[in-house]
Each structure stands twice: as structure tokens, then as C-alpha cells.
């Protein structure tokens, strides 16, 4: 599903669920080698096969594989009409780890970003004319303390050095623990989406990026409508040229929810953060393994 990201670029957001693509059960934690994936590995390049084979646990290898399949699927959808095919697409990474398509058609700008956590694999992509800047970043994270037995306060303490003092105050001002947790992870996913978009990774000091999310504190339940939740600031000035979206996604159970954050370049943007907590955000297109394989072909 296409969504207007600026006057000259289109952004797609794709979602794949590991639990839908693969049967869960005791075998989900099998150690490598992951023989159950052998038939699917022919649909990705040799570098991807090597990366997937390095994962010790099958669940991690499956998420990586879904991401590599999504990258080809999304590129073909966004670059429809070009001479590119599933097997002819070539990918690489910048010196700081940002993925990109090597063999883009002449005159086209294309950027994409991948993230995964627990059951979800997300890809955001944006395309436009080459003379227009096309940049996108995405991050997804389950709204839960990421280690067993941990508390919200412990999580916030580990994030302390990456948060602006105003963000810390906003988190601590939330009365309920679940609200503090959701707000802390909202800040984190938005920051991750931005540094993925600019391609700086760990070289960017996250404290330079500050979000004011006053409009997000009352929206913890799925079903709310989209609205302006706040703004982003870089080096204490509005993040001119950027827009952000924060969406809440449903997991496999009523208690399993995720934050999905996207950041994209928009010449008219002033750091706006849009909050969307609908059960199935209209800008997110869910893709099954069957749909991925319907377009796939063997890659040498």
C-alpha cells in the first residue's frame, strides 16, 4: 500500500510475521545448521545465505531471511516498470551499515530500511526522482521490558545516557508504569528510525535528537485515531526537512503490542510526529510468505 511521503516520493511500509510464515513449536529454537530453511535460501543471494547461516538460533535466522525476502519484494514493487527482476537485484551496505540497491534504474532514487523484533519484520521504502532526496528509516520494538524479570525503571536507567533530560522528565511524569514503559520505548524507536534514515548508526549521539511527545501520553490503547503527537528537534532546533510517524501494532495476543516508528525526509517537514494507534494502520501492508514466494525466483 503506497503512502505519500512528499511531493515527489512514495513510501511503502511492509510487515511480515514470523509466526505466520513459520510454524512455532519446540523446533523454533533449533540450533544451526538450519536445514529447514534450505529450500528458501535459494531465493536470496550468497551474502544473505552466509549471514543467515551465522545465526545460532532458528528464530533469528528466520527473521533475517524474511527481511532479505522483503527487501527484494519491496524493491520490485516500488521500482515497477523497470527492467529489474528478483534475481537481478543487487544489494550492498554503506561504510556505516546502511543497506542500498546497487543497480538502480537511471534517474531513480530509492532508499529502504529494515527492522525486526520478536514476531515482526518490518521494511519501509521510499522512491522518487534522482534529483530529489529520498531517505527513510524504520524501527520496530515490542512494548515490553526486553529481558525477563526486568522493570521499567531498570530499562529507563539503561537508556539514560541516550535520552535528553526533557525526555527523561516526560517519562517520569507519567503516573502509570505501563505508560512510562510505552513512552520510553516510543522515544527509543523514533530515535532508532532517524539514525537508520541518516545512515550514521552508532556514530550519531542520540542525545542530539530530542522528541517532545506530549500528545502521545494519553494514547496507550489500540483504536485511537491518528493525530499530531509532538515534534522532533536536532541540536535544539526543529528537525526541518523531516517527518515521523509512530504507530502501535497488534501482536499475537491482546497483551502483545509493538511500536513502529518511521522517519523520512520531506522538504516541507518541520519535525512533526504523527501518532497512529489504529489496530491495523492503513499505511502498513502485511505480506505473507506465500506472497513473497509468488514473486521470488532463484538467485545465483
Layout of SSEs?
Elements: E1 2-4, E2 10-17, H1 18-21, H2 38-41, H3 46-53, H4 58-78, E3 91-93, E4 99-101, E5 108-117, E6 120-129, E7 136-142, H5 152-159, H6 165-173, H7 177-198, E8 209-212, E9 227-234, E10 237-238, E11 240-250, E12 257-270, E13 272-276, E14 284-286, H8 289-295
Parallel strand pairs: 2-14, 11-13
Antiparallel strand pairs: 1-2, 2-6, 3-4, 5-6, 7-12, 8-9, 9-10, 9-13, 11-12
Helix pairs in contact: 3-4, 4-8, 5-7, 6-7
Describe the structure.
By secondary structure, the protein is of the alpha+beta class. It has a single domain (2-295), classed as Alpha-Beta Complex (Ribosomal Protein L22, Chain A), CATH 3.90.470.20. It contains eight helices and 14 strands. Strands 7, 8, 9, 10, 11, 12 and 13 form a seven-stranded mixed β-sheet that branches. Strands 1, 2, 5, 6 and 14 form a five-stranded mixed β-sheet that branches. Helix 5 runs parallel beside helix 7. 42% of the residues are buried. Residues 1-8 and 218-224 have low confidence and may be disordered.
Q: Which tags fit this structure?
A:
300 residues; AASDHPPT_N; seven-stranded mixed β-sheet; alpha+beta; 30% strand; 8 helices; transferase; 4-PPantetheinyl_Trfase_dom_sf; disordered N terminus
Instruction: Please give the largest β-sheet.
Output: 7 strands, mixed
CATH fold type: Ribosomal Protein L22, Chain A
Question: What value does the Rg take, in angstroms?
Answer: 19 Å
Give the number of DSSP strands.
14
Protein name: holo-[acyl-carrier-protein] synthase
Domain 4'-phosphopantetheinyl transferase N-terminal: 36-126
Keywords: Transferase
EC number: 2.7.8.7
